[in-house]
């Protein structure tokens, strides 16, 4: 996580001289988002320590689109139509069902995963409001990434009290992950300038379908009937959102 954030800082600092400042009205949202993102990083580490990835990831990611839609309605006065609401429900339900896999979720996993989902929803709504005040999505996103990238490594180093040790391969993977995270979430921030936050959030989470297909094609993972049904619900939800 520390190396990923250092990559985020380096890329954001390199881009900063070529971008304008976001409008001052958006600065409180830049700061709030960076703080929430840092809390999200901590929560994510604890969530993955509490349970398996296949159990925790769908809960965290599946709960966030509904939370974003509710938060956007409460704090930004954003309304969505029945079809879009149906799409969000299908996407969230499909993702959440991936965590069940015919068994009950362990008690310790649910609070940790839902906390992460709440933080995802919180920073998404904050960024959705902030980018609309910023006047420039690139300027807003880069400022937030720079501040977030500075706070997280410091916090992790304070908690660990010593720099983490990485192999060269781990270093390369972490640095690449930092760059990919900038590009991926930067697109989300840009999209929230123009469309409803809940819709953008739900479409963002449909990536779990891509992961299932990649796992089947390239890793030989089994696609059970339950998993196919979950992916079908997510795809149907995406279709509703695209109309």
From TrEMBL:
Pfam families: EamA
InterPro entries the UniProt entry points to: EamA_dom (IPR000620), EmrE-like (IPR037185)
Keyword Transmembrane: yes
Keyword annotations from UniProtKB, A to Z: Membrane, Signal, Transmembrane, Transmembrane helix
Superkingdom of the source species: Bacteria
GO CC annotations, alphabetized: membrane
Signal peptide: 1-15
Membrane-crossing residue ranges in chain numbering: 67-100, 107-126, 138-159, 171-192
Domain EamA, chain residue ranges per copy: 112-241
SUPFAM superfamilies: Multidrug resistance efflux transporter EmrE (SSF103481)
Protein name: EamA family transporter
């Amino acid at each position: 996580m520390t190396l990923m954030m250092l990559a985020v800082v380096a890329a954001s600092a390199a881009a900063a001289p070529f971008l304008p400042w976001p409008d001052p009205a958006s600065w409180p949202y830049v700061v709030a988002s960076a703080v929430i993102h840092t809390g999200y990083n901590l929560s994510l580490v604890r969530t993955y320590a509490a349970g398996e990835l296949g159990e925790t990831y769908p809960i965290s990611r599946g709960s966030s689109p509904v939370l974003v839609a509710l938060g956007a309605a409460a704090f930004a006065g954003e309304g969505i139509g029945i079809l879009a609401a149906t799409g969000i429900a299908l996407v969230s339900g499909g993702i959440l069902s991936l965590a069940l896999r015919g068994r009950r979720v362990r008690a310790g996993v649910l609070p940790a995963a839902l906390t992460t989902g709440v933080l995802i929803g919180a920073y998404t709504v904050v960024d959705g409001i902030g980018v609309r005040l910023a006047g420039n999505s690139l300027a807003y996103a880069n400022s937030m990434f720079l501040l977030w990238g500075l706070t997280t490594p410091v916090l992790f180093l304070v908690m660990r009290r010593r720099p983490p040790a990485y192999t060269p391969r781990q270093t390369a993977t972490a640095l690449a992950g930092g760059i990919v995270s900038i590009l991926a979430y930067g697109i989300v921030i840009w999209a929230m300038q123009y469309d409803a936050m809940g819709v953008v959030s739900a479409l963002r989470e449909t990536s779990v379908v891509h992961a299932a297909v990649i796992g089947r094609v390239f890793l030989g993972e089994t696609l059970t009937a339950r998993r196919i049904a979950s992916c079908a619900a997510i795809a149907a939800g995406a279709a509703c959102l695209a109309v």
